[in-house]
Design goal:
The protein is mainly alpha-helical. It is built from four helices and no strands. The chain is elongated, with a radius of gyration of 15 Å.
Length: 86
Amino acid sequence: MDVNILGIVAGVLTSVSMIPQLIKVIKEKNVEDLSWVMISILICGLSLWVWYGILQNELPIILSNAFAVLVNLTLLVCFVIFRKKQ
């Protein structure tokens, strides 16, 4: 298998992995079962992957992780908007 194809497939799958969760949160407006800590750590890790991709000049790493950062930032914003006030 071509290494580049493997990398692209892995990047696409990990980038879109949180989209079903995001769709569910937006439809139900319920974030009760989400962990803001996990989402925050994931955003930090993905951001570091983007930085690494920039340093290595690897467009697939940059694009897939930047997209994942956007999806997870959107999920974090939804968490803030839809959380129940205590």
